[in-house]
Every structure is written in structure tokens, then in C-alpha cells.
Tetraspanin
Amino acid sequence: MTLGCGASVAKVILVIVNTIFLILGLGIGIAGLVFRFGTDLLGDELKDAMQSLKVDVVGGVNVYDVAGSLSLLLIIVGFFIFLVGGLGCCGACCQNRVLLVVYAIIVFILLVVQIVGVALFAGFRSKFDDSVKAGFKDILTNKYNTTGTDDLSKSYNALFNLYECCGVDSKADMPDNNLPKECCATSTTCTKSSLDVRSGCYSKLKDQIDQYNSVFIGVGVSVLVFQLLCVLFSFCLCVAIGREE
């Protein structure tokens, strides 16, 4: 079956792109399998250390459990990418209209889901911020100790020192009148009445993330355009194949 110039270009692009997806999906899946089942190869002492390691900044998080959940996610994502890439690659190589249509539909659904997800996140950004703030404040109120030597208290104090901030929105979020020295710019004895108490941490963390918004937007738009082109190339190739049959 001889295809026109445009259809041939679309075919080559789809084959190249989806071959990359095949390799990428396979790599992600293998990484997930290694994380998931490779822990059996770890020594008992190392496994026990991972199981006992916890990060408790916004709630108890067991590193070993997180690694297990992440590995399962990698396996699922890797398999899905491999499947989609296989559909696109086989459909283009074999000039199979059914595979190409299924591939285009899946990619289009992903495109719509991503757009809806971004729209929902933008619409509920304030509620998301409020929820995250509430979590931080709850930890400060119920678990944080200004003079504590536990991991949680030391983690928060390190955060205050790193970002030169105090509390979530302000010093009012701190549970005691006496504040850690990290909350003040110069005072060694820091209290809520000190004149050099630093501002809240959440706005500073948010500002640091927001400075990369242009990068996130650029990458996101590029991915969406790329997916849309894959859908268009698939349908163009389908039409060309139909004309040749």
C-alpha cells in the first residue's frame, strides 16, 4: 500500500514517537518492578532501617511504605505508557486503522483529562491552599514543641531557618508565646512580641514554587500540543489508509 507524502511523514513521526514511548514505558515499569520486588535483595538491617525511618513534617510517613506505593504506581504508569506506545507504533507500522483509532481515542481522552484536571486545580486552588495550611497548623498545634528535640520539631525549626520564616501564615500559628530562635531575625530570645519576628512560611514556599510557573506552563502546553498532534497524525494516517484500500 503506497501512502502519500503527508501520510508517510505522519507514519514516520508516529513510529518514532511511540517507539520512544515503548522504551520509556518499559524503563519505568522495570524500575517499578525493581523497587517493588528488589527489596527482597536488601539486607535485613537495611530493610529494618527503612521501615523505621519516618518523615513527620505534615503527618507520619513511613519511607518504606512510600517506596512500596511509589513502585506500584511506577509499574502501572509504565505498563500504561508501554501499552499506548505499542498501539501507536503497531498501528502506524502495520497501517492498521483499528489500532490507530484506539490509540487516538486514548490519547485524546488523556488530553481532555489533563485539561479538566488543570482547570479544576485552578478553580479550587484556594481550597487546596486552605487544606494544606490547615494540615500544617494542626501539626504545629498538636505535635510541635518549641524546645523539643524530636524529629518533627527539629524539622520545623530547620524549615524556619532555611526560609527565614515563622509559623504558617504568621507567628500567631505558633503554639507558645516563646518562639524558637529561628523565628527571629536577630533576637536570641524570641517571643511573639519580638519586633523582628519573621513572616509566615507558606507564602514564601508558595512564592518559590510560583517562580517556576512559566516553566510548568510551557512544559504543560508543549505536552498538550504534542498529544493533539499525535491524535491528528493518527486520524490523517487513518484517512490515507482508507483511501488506499
Remarks:
- Confidence is low (pLDDT under 50) at residues 49-61.
- The chain is about 70% helix and 5% strand.
- The CA atoms of residues 34 and 89 lie 26 Å apart.
